[in-house]
Amino acid sequence: MDTMRERFASVTSRLLDEDPRLAVVLADIGVDGFAAAARRHPDRVVNVGIREQLLIGVGGGLALTGLRPIMHTFASFLVERPFEQVKLDFGHQGVGGVLVSAGASYDWPSGGFTHMAPGDVALLDTLDDWTVHVPGHPDEAEALLRHAAAAGDDRVYVRLSVQTNSAPRAVDGARFSRLREGRRGVVVAVGPLLDNVLAATEGMDVTVLYATTVRPFDGAALRAATGLADAADVVLVEPYLAGTSTRFANDALADRPHRVLGLGVGRRELRRYGQLDEHLAAHGLDPRGLRERIAGFLTSAARA
């Protein structure tokens, strides 16, 4: 099976053939995947070199001309390093484009902390009107990329990862999907953490929602799911900074007594390179760690 990033290159190359409004801007990362597309569309595949602020600036300039730019590099270089340009060249200018990242929170541990971005979604939450997609499988990535490319002048972030679930789910670029129903609470699994959540909650009497589009946050689906449960206890399991979406869940349930537990990447930097699975376990995002924390949270509610 190809990776999400490989699917991004092949799908976007085809989209460039189909839609003359699309353009791709790169910063040396991912150039090989667009070599053929660059030969066919030299005016719409631009490599600015290792200049991430320029990557976003060129994308914003292309958007001002009426094109729909798709900008790609590691998440830490796409959202964090050029954040001022994202804020001004897109938000302030009122134009749209698509940011497509690689690396996620810790996909390449040997790259060190410079190539990790657990805070990317939280950072974009400080800006207005960004749609955020977090696919959990290359097929989902393709569907969401096509959705983002065709999304008019919207501002969209597509967060790709080498982590992937064993099978794709149907995605529509908007709503959470309900995979299990239960009475003791609701667990929201985001993107590539779905398989771990399903394994962790096996045998538990909980509802499991699957989220691949996290902004806008599907508060209606969460409200409907908590309506099935005996208590409005919610666990959010996100592949980025823990607690990133807790305020959105709290807002959705503001008129109901409820509790929310946000699980995700911890704030403490793990300074040993290790392997991806070791980082998952260290942050408690492997099935064993998730089961302990989810069960503990729900048990504490039963004892209260």
From TrEMBL:
Protein name: Transketolase
GO MF annotation: an example: magnesium ion binding
SUPFAM superfamilies on file: Thiamin diphosphate-binding fold (THDP-binding), TK C-terminal domain-like
Domain Transketolase-like pyrimidine-binding per the UniProt entry, residue ranges: 2-168
Matches recorded under Pfam families: Transket_pyr
InterPro entries registered for this protein in UniProt: PDH/Transketolase (IPR051157), THDP-binding (IPR029061), Transketo_C/PFOR_II (IPR009014), Transketolase-like_Pyr-bd (IPR005475)
Domain of life of the native organism: Bacteria
